[in-house]
Amino acid sequence: MSILNTSQIMEILPHRHPFLLIDTVEELEVGVRAVAKKNVTFSEGHFTGHFPGNPVMPGVLIIEALAQTGAVAILSKEEWKGKTAYFAGINSAKFKQKVLPGDTLMLETEIIKVKGPIGVGKATAYVDGKVVCMAELTFAIG
Question: Regarding beta strands 104-115 and 130-141, do their DSSP bridges make them parallel or antiparallel, or are they unpaired?
């Protein structure tokens, strides 16, 4: 059972369709870690051009989904409610396999460092238990 549904996620994040890239939050340790789920569907607009006849979820959208997962964790803290988490850096991003329509992405982001409004998250995306992407994400809360 999910901890947060889409409506509850939208109370935390400013993102909206078509750029809200997580469907549910499955686990949440406020300020520490979140695990979210994204059901990848063929009807998503980017598949018409990425790539015709060979639909693959763009890596930048996987990274964004991981960032949104981390943003739920950090912005759930009372002191950051109503704020926005912005990208300040993406380090060591690696993509291990393609993400295709029909896949269910499990997104895990752990906040490993926070100093004032700047923080770092360790992020990993999985499909069927296999790592598809990992990165270190730096964010600034504003």
Answer: unpaired
